[in-house]
Amino acid sequence: MRQERLEGDWKLKLKLVLTRTGGCRAPNTALHACATLEFLQCSANSGAALFKYMGPPSPPYYTPLSKPTAAAAAASTTTTHLKKPQKLYPFAIITILCSLSYLFGVWHHGGATTPSAASTLPCFSISQNTTTTTTELDFSTHHHSAADGGTTTAVKTYPPCSIKYSEYTPCEDPKRSLKFPRDRLIYRERHCPTKKKEQLKCRVPAPHGYKTPFTWPRSRDLVWYANVPHKELTVEKAVQNWIRFEGDRFRFPGGGTMFPNGADAYIDDIGKLINLRDGSIRTAIDTGCGVASWGAYLLSRNILPISFAPRDTHEAQVQFALERGVPALIGVIASKRLPYPSRSFDMAHCSRCLIPWGQYGNFARIFVIRSFVLHSYNLWRDDHEIDGAYLIEVDRVLRPGGYWILSGPPIRWRKYWKGWERSREDLNAEQTQIENVTRSLCWKKLVEKDDIAIFQKPANHLKCKKFRKIVKNPPFCSAQDSDKAWYTNLETCLTPLPEVSTNEEVAGGALEKWPKRLNAVPPRISRGTINAVTPETFQQDLQLWKRRVSYYKTVNNQLGQAGRYRNILDMNAFLGGFAANLIKDPLWVMNVVPVEAKVNTLGVIYERGLIGTYQSWCEAMSTYPRTYDLIHADSVFTLYKDRCEMEDIMLEMDRILRPEGSLIIRDDVDTLVKVKRIADGLNWDSQIVDHEDGPLEREKLLFAMHVMRFTCMFLEQEIDYLKFYSPRPSLERSTLRLGLDPSTSQKLFLKTRPSIELTSNKDSA
Question: Under a CB-based contact definition with an 8 Å cutoff, are residues 498 and 514 in contact?
């Protein structure tokens, strides 16, 4: 105990010396004090080891149980005196060795010379005015070829864009769209920048006052006004119960044009006509979705929707959907196919979506025999033209046996024709035209009740082929890839279903009901229609991603926290294994299959009951800024090597990622080093970590976070905002918004704009 007290006193005194002299980075005195502390620690450890090796001191010759004789006492004393010299030898040897170690350490650190502050290392951290540094894995090369010039390039930084780009969608830019034809809404389609000078090389900023969105399920009903500062819909759709403005937020009552009592009650009405609860309907598409209330309330029934609408006069409707945590994309049915494979959705929906379903096409006039019945298909005799290009596209993406639900004009026109401000003849002609197209597609009208009409696609085309012998239009499409849907023109021909042998057989293979569908081998794989993907490959992929996602959660523990992430993007999904292992969490994943991928697997993803889209990452995604809470990118940069610029892909990732959002990027180590350099320029907090199988794997992982840094660049945006909305910027108001203390805020304001006069709230008022 006495030895421990002495050791503690020495340590305390040495720490005081180090504190007063500036730690081990101070001159000679601190260095020697540091070395002395190391020596003392070495001596203490050696003494403890010696104590353990030789055992405790010899017990006294007297014990309470017996009293020794004088002869025994003398013998014991003689033995003790004989053992003392033997105990001193090991202790002396260890002391000498520690002394030599100490001297060698002093010599190694420069001997008696005074070390510089930069060349010394602290022996322990001092809490006063110190910063903690974390050692990260350094995978970068430290040699350069002649082509590199032998120099290390500086990190390129990316400044924030002007605040006017806070809602910038590169491929749906309203100004650029005006250059294209308005016929069939072609100008609302994707039109991406084609020239380098049109591409932004800056970070798209968040709007003024941006807040972290509400967590699900509160986000279904509430959105911060600052995140989507548009009140147009609150006025335009006030009667229809779409959206309300309440103080600093929007509230979504769940209403719609055709369901004023709420989307929940409307879906219940649909559920009385078709079964929405048995798992046979899992994926759905909502055309012309508005603020996506229909999709928002479908999620509680284990049905996963994709909602889409153009960026049009209903400003920010898709942006509202995404802020609510509902899967959505900017899109329109015009001259191109929808970016989904054939046979994707169990259900399609249109509630007053204003799409001219019976129009557009180039079919010849057909002659039909009225009242003739062939295999339950009613044919009629008349001279008329069959168009319906948009319904033909719905037929392509609808699964065999799938449903198309239509509400709104012209359904139930006899009741609503006055309110719709259209003539009865016009509405009757429109409904007749739609039903003619559905018959030509071999669909069956299941029911029309109140405001809802439901049609069903056949399970196969056996009867439809017999029907085509009499009615040849629309014809079956010739041999083509029906899954190809990236900038692919719409066709006015019927996409043929896979061959079957009986009328009861489902074309392409029957699917399991949800949730068994998720891990069952998809029919596209079991039938061998996907190149190089077998049932064994699928099972291996299941196990692979189970292990990978488990590892992700150990590195980023927020991934395992329910509610931390809601909207997730997988930039290279393959078979959807990443999304499948997150299915129990309250989130959804947009699975992207790049059009440059060797194998088109998006149809497999849909057969598993997941959702996704096609995308080329050389272009911007059809979504608003700040869409996703987490982005996962597996080998994306290797795939796009020599195809497009790495910084352009990362700037797009920065655009669609929310502030405080996360990224997981896995790729070859050499590629990740380049990614890390750009990530530093984007002000991401990032770190490269080892592969889940250990450090010997070349593939590494980069975990990053999109951090909103309140530096001078954000204060510039704040000043721009205040100059626009107020004649004189307010220091106190901006301090409150940015979360800075007044002194720091004033210094940064003066550093950013020295010429701007700083005023108080009273002055600015």
Answer: no
Note the pLDDT of residue 583. 97
Name the pairing type of β-strands 611-615 and 628-634. Answer: unpaired
Pairing assessment for the beta strands 328-330 and 304-309 based on DSSP bridges? parallel
CA separation for the pair 213, 629 (Å, rounded): 10
Residue type at 596? E
- What are 229's two structure tokens? 């500062």
Euclidean distance between CA atoms 199 and 426, whole angstroms: 46
Query: DSSP secondary-structure letter at 320?
Result: H
Asked whether 55 and 103 are in contact (CB, 8 A), the reply is: no
Distance of alpha carbon 559 from alpha carbon 711, whole angstroms:
28
SS3 622: coil
Mean pLDDT of 152-158: 81
Looking up tokens 């798992």 gives: 279
Q: Above 90 in pLDDT, residue 233?
A: no
Q: Are 230 and 242 in contact (CB under 8 A)?
A: no
**How large a percentage of the chain has pLDDT more than 70?**
71
> Positive or negative, the Cα torsion across 337, 338, 341, 342?
negative
How does DSSP classify residue 510? P
Mind spelling out the 3-state secondary structure of 235-287?
HHCCCCCCCEEECCEEECCCCCCCCCCCHHHHHHHHHCCCCCCCCCCCEEEEE
CA angle at 246 for the pair 243 and 248, rounded to the nearest 5°:
115
**HEC secondary structure over 654-674:** HHHEEEEEEEEEEEEHHHHHH
Structure tokens at 187: 């100008």
Here the tokens at position 342 are 């054939």
Assess whether pLDDT exceeds 60 at residue 666.
yes
Across the range 116-137, mean pLDDT stands at: 38
Residue 656 phi, psi dihedral angles, 5° rounding: -90, 0
Nearest to 649 by CA among 659, 636, 662, 660: 636
Residue type present at position 22: G
pTM more than 0.90: no
If phi > 0 it is left, if psi is from -120 to 50 it is alpha, else beta; for residue 744 that is alpha
pLDDT at 23: 42
Indicate the average pLDDT of the chain.
Answer: 79
pLDDT score of 488: 96
Residue 478's pLDDT is 87
The per-residue pLDDT for range 645-665, each reduced to its tens digit, is: 999 999 999 999 999 999 999
> In Å, how far are 54, 242, 412 from 89, measured between CA atoms?
12, 90, 107
Residue 11 CA to residue 5 CA, distance in Å, equals 10
